[in-house]
Specification:
about 300 residues; mainly alpha; 12 helices; about 0% strand
């Protein structure tokens, strides 16, 4: 019975993938606008960019993309992580497949060991583990994007300090931005250099390019910086003062974040101490409690 159910589920999944491949679902208007904004639909993965998870999950890319994945928030996380949407969709399908096969594999091992297990267990485990595996790449991308945004904010604060120093030395705005972008070797400074070079090539203002990058990466501080400098330019305020104020604001926010993380770490360190104290009290009080219970 269990083998028949697993074979039927596999055949049904195969037929579903065939239907998705032959008649892909139509995108909504919002999804079409997102596609036009972020580029063409997913294309076949290059071997160097895919990884084993992406290469194994190639058949899942088209069905998942026809469902509107990834969303706008996930696209911003992928952009800051430097990961393509194709690789993300491939890893998503691979994780769901691998997690889904864990249940039947464990069931086969248990049955071969001679332990009777109801057939409902592997069926429900396939459903549950497949859903869990489907969302595992989302958690990984979200965690990595959070760390990358924190690194980018630190680099942006240093970048603004360098721009202010260059402006104070008599450099123009464009020259100060170019000099400041060459002051770091990390991935954040490399992307800032790329955005500034693209703005010069397209003959746009550097602040517009930085603001666009802030929207693409989901870095609110970068978008606010572009808006503040643009407002300062229209009202005649000095750009150097605006940049210095923004750099000070970034440092204050980073200091507050560091203090918050330190407080959370302190609270987590107190939990083992409380557990040890509870165990010690239980160890001390057990003989007395056992004597009272025996006397009853």
């Amino acid at each position: 019975m269990a083998l028949a159910l697993l074979l039927g589920a596999g055949a049904g999944l195969g037929l579903l993938l065939i239907v998705y491949g032959l008649w892909p679902g139509r995108l909504t208007l919002a999804q079409e606008l997102e596609r036009l904004r972020y580029g063409s639909p997913p294309r076949p993965l290059a071997d160097g960019d895919a990884g084993w998870g992406g290469r194994l999950g190639r058949p899942f890319i088209s069905p998942l993309s026809s469902c509107g994945l990834p969303g706008a928030v996930t696209r911003r996380d992928l952009a800051i992580c430097g990961k393509s949407a194709e690789r993300y969709l491939g890893e998503k399908g691979t994780a769901a497949l691998v997690f889904g096969l864990l249940g039947p594999s464990l069931y086969a091992v248990v049955v071969l060991s001679g332990i009777p297990v109801p057939w409902q267990v592997p069926v429900w485990s396939v459903v549950l583990l497949t859903v869990i595996g489907f969302f595992v790449p989302d958690l990984a991308v979200r965690s990595q994007a959070k760390e990358r945004r924190a690194e980018f904010r630190q680099a942006l604060s240093a970048f603004l300090d360098l721009v202010v120093i260059s402006l104070a030395g008599g450099r123009g705005v464009d020259g100060a931005l170019a000099d400041a972008s060459e002051g770091g070797d990390g991935w954040a400074f490399a992307r800032l250099r790329g955005a500034l070079q693209a703005s010069r090539t397209a003959r746009r203002t550097p602040w517009a390019a930085l603001g666009r990058m802030g929207e693409e990466y989901g870095v609110r501080e970068l978008s606010e910086l572009a808006a503040a400098v643009g407002l300062a330019g229209t009202e005649g305020a000095r750009v150097r003062e605006s940049l210095a104020a923004k750099a000070a604001s970034l440092r204050a926010h980073q200091l507050a974040d560091i203090e918050t993380v330190a407080q959370r770490s302190t609270e987590r360190m107190s939990l083992p101490v409380v557990g040890l104290l509870f165990g010690f009290l239980l160890f001390i009080g057990y003989p007395a409690i056992a004597s009272v219970l025996v006397g009853l």
